[in-house]
Amino acid sequence: MSKITPAILPALILLTALTTFAFAAEPPATTARNLNQRDSLRNSSIVFTQTKKGHVAFIGGSITEMNGYRPIVVEGLKKRFPLADFKITSAGIASTCSTTGAHRLEEDVFAHGKVDLFFIEFAVNDDQDAMHTKQAALRGMEGIIRQCRRHNPMMDIVVVHFTNEGMIATYDKGKTPVSIEAHEEVCEHYSIASVNISKEVSQLISEKNITWKIYGGTHPGPTGNALAARMCLDLCDAAWKKAGQDTSGYVSRAKPLDAGNYGQGHFVDPKEAIIDAAWGFDVPDWKNIPGSFRDTFAGRLLLHSTRPGASAAITFEGQAVGVYVLAGPDAGILEVKVDGGEWKQVNLFHRFSKGLHYPRTVMLATDLERGKHSVAIRISKDHDPASKGTAARILKFAVN
């Protein structure tokens, strides 16, 4: 056996590390078993080819926000359409679920122009962050899809299901995670393409073709992101081989699965509210407020107060209303009254609020008769047992 000298040891370690990384970044072979085309992806190819330009957008949580599958998909599209000038909109915000997505869609995506190809990722955050019921996950995703079809009936849409260990365990038991079950029901109803990375990873692990560690975890590593991007591009390639324009976009006329879906979701600026003197409408002094803070929200004006009894009111047109908040270690409880009815309490604190000013949309009232309503809020003297205060920090009102 040859002796390794100290002089060559560092180079050997580096070579081993690079080889290991290269191996890990190469995803295992996959099949089309978890690609659901549903005949809805040819229009973007026509736009990219004939107009030599196109708008590709991504929305989701931290998996979309991170330097992960998204830039790999973008590079893949550029290679497939080298003459096209792509406009890319990246609208990933860590921790946010499909409820928030449905309400921020207009501001964060459609305001940047007509979208031709749209990738939507909310399965993980609807599961582990929001812990949505099937109805809540369905209302969020259906709301997004219905808004997309109004924005551009011929938009090509891909719903991408990422995964976590709990979702893998659910598939291992022969069941489907709640968020994916809800999102797939929407996709089937509206003929929307989907890529089920969660199920694929579960199967690859069972077949011993990958491990959870190599995949990279909930926030995928190089292998996981390469696998996800390849599945997305394989789905598109299969559709783009077919000729002719796709008219499935007009399925927007389909009857809603849930009448309470957030298909009219949008944000209302807090400056529209009538407030008392206990509220401020400015940038909070984050340096002196305990809890970590994400730069995503730096410089944002918030309607905020920590004083019990602080009251505000807003009128809106729709059937549901909520608040998009930063809920930190001191997040409180709102008392809410709609149309002069009884007061009820809505807790803003989240289990992830203990060390972070956590972005979340909390619905205050749903399933109202569509029309004009008024909602009054005030900060309660009560708070969650795990909270250290009575703060309310409102980024936007969410109206549907």
Helix and strand sequence: HEHEHHEHEHHEHHEHHHEEEEEEEEEEE
Number of helical segments with 4 or more residues:
12
Spatial ordering of strands, largest sheet:
1-6-5-4-2-3
Summarize the amount of helix as a percent range: 25-40%
Low-confidence runs (pLDDT<50, min 5 residues)? 1-24
- Structural category is alpha+beta
Radius of gyration: 23 Å
* N-C termini distance: 72 Å
Instruction: Compute the number of strand runs.
Output: 17
**Major sheet summary line:** 6 strands, mixed
Description:
This protein is α+β, with helices and mostly antiparallel strands. It has helices at 9-25, 43-51, 62-65, 69-80, 98-108, 123-129, 134-151, 165-172, 178-190, 197-206, 212-215, 222-240; strands at residues 35-36, 53-60, 85-92, 117-121, 156-161, 193-196, 266-268, 274-275, 280-282, 302-305, 311-318, 321-327, 333-338, 344-347, 358-365, 371-379, 392-399. It has a 6-stranded mixed beta sheet with strand order 1-6-5-4-2-3, sandwiched between helices. A hairpin with a 5-residue loop joins strand 13 (333-338) and strand 14. Helix 1 (9-25) runs parallel beside helix 12 and helix 4 runs parallel beside helix 12 (222-240). The longest helix has 19 residues, at 222-240. It is globular, with a radius of gyration of 23 Å.
